[in-house]
Amino acid sequence: MKKIQSILILIFFSAMSLHAQEQKKSVVLANHQAIYVTDLKKAAAFYADIIGLEQVEEPFKIGKHAWFRTGPKTTLHIILGAEKPKEYFKNNHMCFSVPSLEDFISKLNRNKVPYEDVSGKRSAVTTRVDGVKQIWLRDPDHYWIEINNDPSVFE
Predict the structure, then answer these.
(1) Which of 33, 79, 97, 104 would bridge 153 by S-S if both were Cys, CB 3.0 to 4.6 A apart?
(2) Which CATH number fits domain 28-84: 3.10.180.10, 3.40.50.150, 1.10.150.110, 3.40.640.10?
(3) To the nearest 10°, the Cα dihedral for 138, 144, 147, 151?
(4) pTM of the model
(5) Do the domains at 28-84 and 85-155 have one common CATH topology?
C-alpha cells in the first residue's frame, strides 16, 4: 500500500511540475503591423481596392488611421503623417497570399499596377523552390508587398 501511495504522490508532483512548466511558456502571436504614409485616402484605397483587404473599424476616429484585416486576428494599421515616401529594401516587406495568382495579376493589369519577380524583372513571376509562385509590387508609399499563391494559408 505504501508503494502505491508513493507512486501516486510521485505522479501527482510530476503532473504539477509539468503544469507549472506549461504555464511559464510564453506564447507570442502577431497582432498588427503599422505603416506610415503620406496620403491616407490613397493608401487605404490601394489596400482595399488593389490588395483586396477588408477595412475594419479603428478606435481613434481622428482621420489619421485606417485599419485592415490581414488574418483572423491580425490587422494592418495605416497611419497618416509621413513627409514623403521612402525607399525600402525588397527584403523588408509584407506578404499576402491569394487563391489565384493569375486572377490577382489580371486585376493588377486592369488597374495598371506594375509588378515584378524577385530579381526585379517587370511583369514576371518567381516560382520558389517549394513551387509557390510569387510577385512583388509597391504601394503608393513604396512599401514592398509580396503576393503569392501559397496553398497552406488556405488549409
Answers:
(1) 97
(2) 3.10.180.10
(3) -170
(4) 0.83
(5) yes
Instruction: Quick: pLDDT tens for 9-57.
Output: 556 556 555 555 666 788 999 999 999 999 999 999 999 999 999 999 9
Task: Quote the CA–CA distance of 128 and 11 in Å, as a whole number.
Answer: 49
pLDDT in tens, 108-132: 999 999 999 999 999 999 999 999 9
CATH number given to 85-155: 3.10.180.10
The three three-digit cell numbers of residue 124, written as one number: 514576371
Question: Distance (Å, rounded) from C-alpha 55 to C-alpha 14?
Answer: 49
Residues 88, 81: Cα–Cα separation, whole Å = 17
| Gyration radius of the chain over CA positions | 23
Find the DSSP H helices in 25-152: 40-45, 101-110
Backbone region of residue 143 per phi and psi (left: phi > 0; alpha: psi in -120 to 50; beta: other values): beta
